Amino acid sequence: MHEYFAFALLGFTSFFTLINPLGVMPIYLSMTADLDREMKKRTARKATIVSFIILVLFAVTGQLIFKFFGITINSLKVVGGVIFFLMGQDMLQARLVRAKISEKEVNSYTNDISITPLAIPMICGPGAITNAILMMDTAESIVFQGILIIVLSIVCFATYLILLNSTRIYNLLGETGNNILMRLMGLIVMVIAVEFIVSGLTPIIRTILKIE
């Protein structure tokens, strides 16, 4: 039971910090400023549902993709760890690196902003996708895999609630509060990144040195 709880806690923490709904929130507010309440709700709902489907799809088919291209999970851990570290470093400096969208690009997405760019790549970015593949690989049984799917659904639902109440949350926290939370999340992401890099490099180094 303790192992299940630890796995679920790790999954929730890592996905929530990588998806970073509080970081997506200001962008969601600016892109839906001219929409009525019902349209804003529909946009947030569709964006989180699409993100959940994509994350589950990559989590389930990730190993097949690796086998097809001859990629090892340890290599992905190292690369994923580097990606996480860079993301965490930017978050630690309170920079919304995932929201680099010009006004011209935003206007081109007005027909369906819930899919692009809200769902991809803001909510479901490379960090979250990589984490889904890695977490599924570490799932030792169907129970762990089921826990991972449940955690993904909880995180996506929490993201939906945050976006739905983004105006209240942003006004309550203020710019300073949002920056503080982003820095804390960035620190957590960097710690997770180090763990991924170490766990990926250790078997690679052992193989090179031929250490059993």
TrEMBL record:
Coiled coil: none
A GO cellular component entry from the record: plasma membrane
Membrane-spanning residues: 6-29, 49-69, 75-92, 113-136, 142-163, 184-205
Cited InterPro entries: Multi_antbiot-R_MarC
Principal location class: membrane
Organism domain of life: Bacteria
UniProt entry keywords in alphabetical sequence: Cell membrane, Membrane, Transmembrane, Transmembrane helix
Localisation per UniProt entry: Cell membrane
First and last residue of the signal peptide: none
Membrane topology, as annotated: Multi-pass membrane protein
Family, similarity comment: Belongs to the UPF0056 (MarC) family.
Protein name: UPF0056 membrane protein
